[in-house]
Amino acid sequence: MNTTLTQMEQWIDERVTDPLHPEYSLLYAQVEFWPGVREGGALEEYYIIIKNRVGSVGDRLRDWVLKQFGVSARLADWETIPSPRQLRAESQYEDEF
Fold first, then answer.
1. Where does the source fall among the domains of life (predicted)?
2. How far apart are the first and last CA of the chain?
3. Which phi and psi angles does 29 have, rounded to 5°?
4. pLDDT tens, per residue, the chain with 97 residues
C-alpha cells in the first residue's frame, strides 16, 4: 500500500506509458462531514490514485464519497496533481500549430 505522496507518484510513474495521456492520476480531495465546517463539522483531506477513463472524475469522486462515508459527507473540493514526469513531458512538448 502506498502511504506517502512520493510513493504514490512513483507507483503512477511506473505504470504510465505516455505521460501526456497518463493511465493513472493522483487526486487531492476534500470531504466535508455534516453539519458542515462552518457549523462545527469536520473536513478531511485525501490523496487518491485513480485509473483514467471516460467520464467525469468529479462524478466518480462523489460516488466514492457516498459509498465510503454515506449521506453525512460530501465532496467539498478536488484537483488533479500532475506527476513530475507529466510536468516534464508537458514542458518539453512542442505544439504542431
1. Bacteria
2. 42
3. -135, 145
4. 668 999 999 999 999 999 889 999 999 999 999 888 888 889 999 999 999 998 889 999 999 999 999 999 999 999 999 988 888 888 888 766 5
Identify the three-state secondary structure at position 79.
strand
Report how far apart, in Å, the C-alpha atoms of 70 and of each of 18, 32, 40, 50, 83 are: 36, 12, 18, 20, 31
The one-letter amino acid at 65: V
Chain position carrying cell 472524475: 57
How many residues can be counted in the chain? 97
Q: Which three cell numbers stand for residue 59?
A: 462524478
